[in-house]
Amino acid sequence: MKIAPLSLSLFLAFLLFGSSLAALAQEDPVNVTLNRVKALLKAKQPQEAAALLEGAVKKNPKAHQLWVALGFVYEETEEPAKALQAFKQAQSLKIGLPGVASKIINLEKRLQKAGPATASEKNAPENVRRARALFKEAVEEKSLGKFETAFPKFIECTELDPSYLVDEHGMIPAALYFYKEMSKRDPGALFYYGIYQHMYGDLDAAQRLLEKFLDSKPAADLEKRARQRLAAIATARQQMAAAAAAEEAARQKAAAATTPKSPATGTTASPSKPLSPVAPTEPVAAASGPSVIEVPSATAQYATSNLTELLQEADALRATKPVEALKLYSIAADRKNDPKILLTLGDLYLQENPKHGVGPAIQTYQRILSEFPKSPQAAEARRKILELQPPPEKRAQEVADYFAQHGTAHLDNPSDSQ
């Protein structure tokens, strides 16, 4: 966004705000810098002006004039997030600066509407720019109550760039409620309802809804997309099953390692006193709700430790003995069904084995989404699941297939998109 004539006039006027003729005559460093910035902007060199001001505020961080100037220049270089921070810094140094409060309000509204913009957007690949355009339209239309067009656009946006699922502006829960009601009277809404359940992490509900949608004999293009989603769900289930099998094998191995040996020939074990303290061979039942992942059994050493002691010991072992920390957090998760414990447990699976720990980690994060969907950890779990999705090469191929099918003419008219 280039500085509008009015904003530029305001900025140039500010360059002299609060400066006396005596200060100017004495070659005040701040005013010298501001005059150089003014000259650079008139010469259409905003990047050079930004670099000059960035160095100036490091030397003189309490000069509010420099921060205001930097805010205007960041607007000129199309970096609204940086502009907002610069104006806020100026306001923190001096209240009542002309135009600054309105700048902050307008920039906050712009950033909230636009979503996670990047400075290099103009040079981004076509699919990235398309996804961003769809995201902007979806967020704006949702704010206006145009759900019928907003929610399908957000689906298309995430198919092009799944990173928008990380900060989805409340799109998923709103769409789930909307399509739940819509599906009661419109079978076609089952398609979108199923996809949003998939985004939410409920694979069972997503599969059931999409299969029911296919029973209605939909149009060929929607049928193809529904079957693609069902294939993705089936792949996720296979990965989770493989991870569960590997986890069960690890559990059995750990249990076998703690099983006491038979007494030597000619000796008899006392029936009232065990030979040695051993861990139970079965995992402890979860405090509440079914356990998604079976984990190694507790060791006898921590069988009687309270939860606080257990977590403290686990945290102390994370850096040096991640396997032991993983076992202790597994015990803690069995004792208390807590999203904070589960989130750390998922992280430890990845830390202990970055390759084979992906499946158990995803299962653990999915458990948070299923059992604690409104917790602060749910958003973090969803972000981590996205980071573990198929590699960018596969997504790039899906994007290429999309444009091979639809062409690019529709990009000039977003309203034509589904």
Automatic annotation (TrEMBL):
InterPro entries: TPR-like_helical_dom_sf (IPR011990), TPR_rpt (IPR019734). The keyword Signal applies. SMART domains: TPR. SUPFAM superfamilies: TPR-like. Residues 252-284 are annotated as: Disordered. Keywords: Signal. It holds the Pfam family TPR_16. Coiled coil: none annotated. Residues 252-273 have a biased composition (Low complexity). Residues 1-25 form the signal peptide. It comes from the Bacteria. This is Tetratricopeptide repeat protein. It comes from Candidatus Ozemobacter sibiricus.
